[in-house]
Amino acid sequence: ILWSNVYDHNNLSDWGNSIIEVSDGYWALGVASNGIRLMKTDLEGNLIADHLFGYGYGNQILEADDGSLYLIGGGYDSEIDEYAILVVKTDDTGTELWRQYLGVDSWGYGGLLNDNGEIIIYGEEDGNAVVYALNLDGMNFDVVAFDNNMDRAKGIVKVDGGGYYIAFSKDYETKIIKTDNNFSEVADITISGYCRSISSASDGNLLITLQIDENEHKVAKLEPSTGQDLWAETATGLYNSFQFGSNYYALGHNDNGSLFLKLDEGGSIITSITFGSGILSSYALTSDGGIIVT
């Protein structure tokens, strides 16, 4: 560990859900006392900006080419007197430029910027899995994927060559659909477990983190056309996983604190570290060859 800091907010309950690196530091997004909190540190971890955006949850940060930020989460929409998916755009200092609410009784869990000038947001609406496409100016949006047999959309990744993989979950079941660039479904698989995260492996397969029962999770490398595990490792409290170089990593928590796992090419654990308290749920690969987590 090169450095580790706790950024308390007035002794209130708070946690981080997303982190990214920018040219002069790191942005982290999360929750402070039931409000959306966005904070920035320099490259040494010193706090240099701290913003609140009202009641709600901040779940993912996306950075645009000009340094502006898109914050995805959920908040209270006073115009409809309901909670809704919330997207906030800020400038490169974290100052809000606009906000857009999507749906009714809905929450946004994350998303990505596609090549068509859209923000793709996945989440839930009225107990159903939903994916929205929102123009980068925040003015026009549309539902591009919906599944009323699943409770939540839990992740999306781009497919090499075009299209997307989208993970929908309900209870201990996950459905992964493959779509074309227009979100028309071309294939699907169903696997056991509730999706906590999904990402691409360098060889075109998928890396997925699943909750498989009340107290057990697993990280697996998955063949996306068949749904078969190429390898899998179980542990308590896993929330995210990713590939970095030839190794794989998983984040989460256990009884001893925050959990950081390193796995070899075959999915066997080679390093297990616990430190501090709380949950590790997000990461970014840094320009100096490191990993930063929150």
User: Strand percentage, roughly?
Assistant: over 45%
Please outline the major beta sheet. 7 strands, antiparallel
Cα-to-Cα separation, first versus last residue: 13 Å
Overall shape: it is globular
Question: How much helix, percentage-wise, in residues?
Answer: under 10%
- Secondary-structure-based class equals mainly beta
> What is the overall pLDDT average?
95
**Helix count, per DSSP?**
0
Side by side, the strands of the main sheet go 1-2-3-4-5-6-7
H/E element string? Answer: EEEEEEEEEEEEEEEEEEEEEEEEE
- Using the CA coordinates, give the radius of gyration: 18 Å
Low-confidence stretches: none
Number of strands: 25
Describe this structure in a few short sentences.
The chain has strands at residues 14-22, 25-32, 35-41, 47-63, 69-77, 82-90, 96-102, 106-113, 118-125, 128-135, 141-147, 152-158, 164-170, 173-179, 185-192, 194-200, 206-211, 217-223, 228-235, 238-244, 247-254, 257-263, 269-275, 283-285, 291-293.
Describe the protein's topology.
Blueprint: E1 14-22, E2 25-32, E3 35-41, E4 47-63, E5 69-77, E6 82-90, E7 96-102, E8 106-113, E9 118-125, E10 128-135, E11 141-147, E12 152-158, E13 164-170, E14 173-179, E15 185-192, E16 194-200, E17 206-211, E18 217-223, E19 228-235, E20 238-244, E21 247-254, E22 257-263, E23 269-275, E24 283-285, E25 291-293
Descriptive report:
With 294 residues, this protein is an all-beta fold. 0% of the residues lie in helices and 64% in strands. The strands form 6 sheets. The chain has a 7-stranded antiparallel sheet with strand order 1-2-3-4-5-6-7, with no helix packed on it. The model has no long low-confidence stretch (mean pLDDT 95).
